[in-house]
Amino acid sequence: MANYNVGALHDPIVSYTNYSLTQGDPTDVFRFSVFGGFMGNREIGIRLHDISANDNANLSLWRDTNNNGTIDASDDWVALALAPNNDDDTISFNASAGNYLLQVNRVNDSVGSVSYDLDLQATHSAGTLGGSVKSYSGGYLSNTNPKDVIEFTTNHPFQRNINVAVDNITNGGNVSLRMYRDNGNGVFDAADTLVAGELYSSGENSLNYRGTADTYFVELEYFNSDSTFFEYDLKLSRSNSKASNLLVGEFDVGDLTGFGYSNDGVVGNGFTTDTYEFSLGLYEGVDITLTNLTGEAYMRLIKDNNNNGIVDAGEVIAAVSSAGVLDKHINDITTSGDYALQVVMGPGGGNGGVNYTVDLNHFTTPYP
Fold first, then answer.
1. What is the pTM of this model?
2. CATH code matching the domain that covers 251-364, chosen among 2.60.120.380, 3.40.50.2000, 2.60.120.260, 3.30.200.20
3. pLDDT per residue rounded down to tens, the chain (368 residues)
4. CA geometry: angle 162, 167, 170, nearest 5 deg
5. What InterPro entries has UniProt attached to this entry (predicted)?
6. Topology of the domain comprising 2-121
7. Is 30 in contact with 118 (CB distance < 8 Å)?
């Protein structure tokens, strides 16, 4: 029996290529450790593939309870993969921090030596997204640890919004954010499908993807930052409507002054919501218009009263959701404070995206 020390397992895939099992030595054991990280548990992904023709092998995963580096009666068996013939074997296991032992076993009816390739990975695990927002603090990226991968599942049978937001970024950090749909091979790799995201974006960032039940990966990547290290907070949610219930201002307008603010944007299935954050001072007001629509879209105005970055009950103070491409208006907002305006793809928006123009028309109000 051959033993291999993998070391600490993290987001990057660790691969072993063209390893073999024989009748005289039918088992390989791979030892590795898992550290929980800022989200607690990690999702161990294992893929046994490219098994030689007319041969078979399977997988057993054990928790090394007594930390002695060998599989014995004191250890806990936690997962098994028994794919037929030379089909790929995969394991996905939600793991707490600790030491683990993976056993690769030659199946007896194989012909001669069995060759195989093996991939191992441990992504951050958010579990299953439901109706409640999941919040995590203390993630970090650096020039030596440039990527984090977050794995989660959704189990709703119908299409729903999947919302991801990164905020409270320290040290002037910049993060790129992308979402992938799993191809079912047990690990996050180049074969997964990019469904939402952009290669580069500065500061706070968010994604809103209209997806069905499946396993997804979110990849966060350090880039072009002022410091070699920064921390971030992460929120994930599932919402029934196309409007995100997470408030991260992709467009930080700031304090409205002068004639106000105008922007041309686009919303679609991979970015269902654009959020504009702005503030009004005393004796100031705003009229908001949504025009030049190429498909259905609507807007809603939010006041985050408890400053938790989540759209809670009672915080939507105005909304216009009329169908079609008619201009939309929210007028005469005159209470001072901080606001978030969301432009949202409507039910008839289509897959190609909806172009729009939003105007925040600033005005002053008379002193009492």
1. 0.89
2. 2.60.120.380
3. 799 999 999 999 999 999 999 999 999 999 999 998 899 999 999 999 999 999 999 999 999 999 999 999 999 999 999 999 999 999 999 999 999 999 999 999 999 899 999 999 999 999 999 889 999 999 999 989 999 999 999 998 888 899 999 988 888 888 889 999 999 998 999 999 999 886 555 567 889 998 999 999 999 998 876 778 899 999 999 998 889 999 987 899 999 999 999 999 999 888 899 999 999 999 999 999 999 999 999 999 999 999 899 999 999 999 998 778 999 999 999 999 999 999 999 886 666 789 999 999 999 999 87
4. 150
5. EF_Hand_1_Ca_BS
6. Jelly Rolls (2.60.120)
7. yes
